[in-house]
Write a structure and sequence with these properties.
With 90 residues, the protein is mainly α. The chain contains three helices and no strands. The longest helix is centred in the middle third of the chain and has 36 residues. The chain starts with 8 loop residues before the first helix and ends in a 15-residue tail after the last helix.
Length: 90
């Protein structure tokens, strides 16, 4: 799929300079920037969707863990006293 991107002159120059310094093509720099942005945006969106699903589940059931319960559990990670995830409660 061929796509064109219109860049203002200042950004175009910055991309060209960066490409030159990295011994890459401007096309490679732009493709890499877009790939990194999309990767980051996908992770951020997945986190948001998981948070929204958790919030919906809480609203429907009232089940939850408190901050201190989670922190206490996390503090056992990697220790000989590592514990299982506490049960959610109302």
């Amino acid at each position: 799929m061929a796509t064109s991107i219109k860049l203002d002159e200042a950004l175009k120059i910055r991309v060209q300079r960066l490409a030159h310094r990295q011994q890459r093509s401007a096309h490679w720099v732009m493709r890499e920037a877009i790939r990194q942005y999309v990767d980051h945006a996908e992770v951020r969106e997945a986190f948001k969707q998981e948070a929204m699903a958790s919030w919906k589940h809480y609203q429907e059931t009232g089940l939850h863990l408190t901050g201190p319960e989670v922190r206490g559990w996390l503090q056992t990670w990697g220790t000989e006293q590592e514990t299982a995830l506490p049960r959610c409660h109302e």
